[in-house]
Amino acid sequence: MQYWEVKEDQRVAAPVPGQGVQQVVPSETKFPLGDPNWDINDANHRTHLIDLKEMILEGIRRAVPQSTNLTKAFEVNQMKEESPGDFIQRIRDHLTKYSGVAPDSPAFDNLLKMQFVTKAWPDIQKKLQKMNWQDAAIIDLIEDEEQIDPMVWADGKMPFHLYVTISSQTAVGVLAQKRGRYQPVAYLSRTLEPVVRAWPTCIQVVAAAAELVVESRKLTFGGALIVHSPHQISTVLTGAASTWMTDGRLTHYETVLRTSPDITLGTDRNLNPAEFLIGERKEWEPDEHDCLGTIQLMAKVREDLSETPLTMGERWYIDGSSYVKEGKRKSGYAVVKEDGEVIESGALPANWSAQKSEIMALTRALELARGLEVTIWTDSRYAWGVVHTFGRTWRDRGRGILAQRPPLLEQQHSFQPGDLVLIKTWKAEKLSPGWDGPFRVLLITESAVRTREYGWTHYHRVKRAPPERWTAIPSLDDPLKIRITKSGTGNQGRTVRQ
To answer: Could you tell me which Gene3D superfamilies the record lists for this protein (predicted)?
Structure first.
C-alpha cells in the first residue's frame, strides 16, 4: 500500500498535458480488505487487478531478505580493455547481488556513483595526462574526439541509411544518418551461410541485405530505413530469386525487405561507404549493370543457351522415369521428335531415380543433337534447373576440388552370379594378405560382388577360384585300390587336399 501511495503521488505531481487535474486513487480501492466483486470483463476492474498484482509482487520483492557481502560488492576492478559502460554495468550487478540495498533506491544510486568514480578514476587520470592541456585549443580537442570515435548516437526521428555490400563470403554494411553530412551509427557484418555462398553475387546481396536489416532493427527502433546497394534487390526478389532458393527462404527475405512500410530499397552506384570496410573499391566493377542479365550469364553453361524456343530447327521431347511394376523397379528414358518418332530410348539400372533418369535423357538428347539447331522440351524442373541454374556452379565447384570422373555406366568386372571366387583377407599375426574361399557369387553391381559369407565386396579384392582338380593315386598295398583327391586353394594360399 505504501508503494501505491508513493506511485500515486508521483503521478499527480507530474500531470499529463491536456488531461486536467489528476485525482489521487486511495490505496484501499486498489487493495481492498474484502471481496471487491471485480469483473474481468470490465475495463476499470481489469486495471484494478493489474495494479493489485504489481503491489503484491513489489511487496514480495521488498520482503525477501537479500544477502549482504560487502567484500564481494566492492571487490570489482576495471579490466585493462574494458569500456566504462561495461565496467559500470559490472559494478551495478555486484551491488545488486551482494550489497543488500534495493536497486531502485537513492542509496543504491549514490553507492553506484561512488564505486564507479573511485575505481575508474586512475584510468581516467592516466588518459587525461596524455593530453597537453596547456597548448591544446578547444578546436583541437573536438578534432581529437572525432578521430577517436566518428560514430554518433542514433536519432529515431531521422531516417537511417544502410549501405550494403559483400566481400569474401561476408555481408558488410554501414548504418548512417544524415546530419549535415552522413555520419555512421554502426558498422555491421555477418558471415553468409554456405547455401548462400553458392549463389550469384546479385542474389547473395539479397540475403546480405536481409541479414543486415535484421541487425539494424536493433538500433533504429522502428525508424525509417533506406537500404542502398549497387544491386537491384527488389528486381532480383521478383524475378530470379525463386529459381535459386526455397519458398520458405524467399518468403523470409520478402517479409524482411518488402512488406515493412518503413523500409525503402534503393539502387545506388555512387560511393558506397561499406566498400571501404573491405579495402579499396574494385575498379573493374561497372557503374551500372543489369542484375537479371548478370545472373543468367553467370548461370549459363554455354552462351548460346536460351530459354526462348528457337524459330528454326527441330523440336525434341525428353522424359525419364522410375516406377515399380509387379514388385520390380524399372527405370528408363526416351528422346522423341515432335511427330512422335522415337529417336532413342532405353532401359537404365533399376536403382536409378526419376531425376537421374531425366538427366540421362537430357544428356543423350544433347549428344544426339550435336551440330543441329534443336529446341528440347522437358517437364522436369530438376533437369531444367541443372542446365539453366546449377550446372555452371557445379562445374566451377569441381575445378580445383577434385577430378570429375564419369559415372560407372559400364560394368568394371566380369564376375557373374554363380561363379566361384576367392576374397582377399589379412592375417592378423603378420598383417600379410591371404585368400579365403572359394565362395559362390550371389549378386553383382558395376563395381562389387556379393557372397553369403562376406556380403558386398569391391571387385579389387576378388579373383576367380582356380578350377577343381581331381587326382587318382594308386595304393601301394593293394594294386586294385586307388585314392581319389580334390585340390583347390585354401585359406592360407596353399593347396588343400581332402
So the answer is: 2.30.30.850, 3.10.20.370, Human Immunodeficiency Virus Type 1 Capsid Protein, Ribonuclease H-like superfamily/Ribonuclease H
Determine the average pLDDT of the residues in 258-276.
Answer: 74
Cβ proximity of 205 and 231 under 8 Å: yes
pLDDT digits (tens, 9 = 90+) for 422-454: 998 876 666 667 888 889 999 888 889 999 989
CATH of the domain at 394: 3.30.420.10
Q: What are the CA-CA distances from residue 18 to residues 9, 22, 44 (Å)?
A: 19, 11, 21
443, 449 Cβ separation under 8 angstroms: yes
Tell me if 210 is assigned to some domain. yes
pLDDT at 334: 92
Prediction pTM value: 0.41
Summarised one tens digit per residue, pLDDT across range 35-83 is 777 777 888 778 877 877 777 777 766 665 556 666 777 777 888 777 7
Does residue 484 share a domain with residue 425?
yes
What's the total number of domains in the chain?
5
Q: What is the separation of C-alpha 82 from the centre of its chain, rounded to a whole number of angstroms?
A: 32
d(CA 464, CA 485): 21
Strand-pair category, 263-267 with 160-167: unpaired
Alpha carbon dihedral 58, 62, 66, 68, in 10-degree steps, equals: 130
Residue 218 within any structural domain of the chain: yes
Same-domain check for residues 182 and 277:
yes
C-alpha cell at position 400: 580445383
Average pLDDT for residues 307-319, to the nearest whole number? Answer: 85
Task: Calculate the CA 348 to chain-centre distance.
Answer: 36
- In this prediction, residues 316-329 reach a mean pLDDT of 87
CA 420 to chain centre: 52
Cβ atoms of residues 273 and 182 within 8 Å: yes
Unique residue bearing C-alpha cell 555491421: 188
Q: Which residue is listed with cell 532493427?
A: 217
Q: Which of 29, 45, 63 is the last residue of a domain?
A: 63
Range of the domain at 172: 160-296
Task: Say if residue 292 is in the same domain as residue 319.
Answer: no
pLDDT, one tens digit per residue, over 231-241 is 888 888 877 77
Cα dist from 331 to 89, 151, 268, 345, whole Å? 68, 64, 52, 11
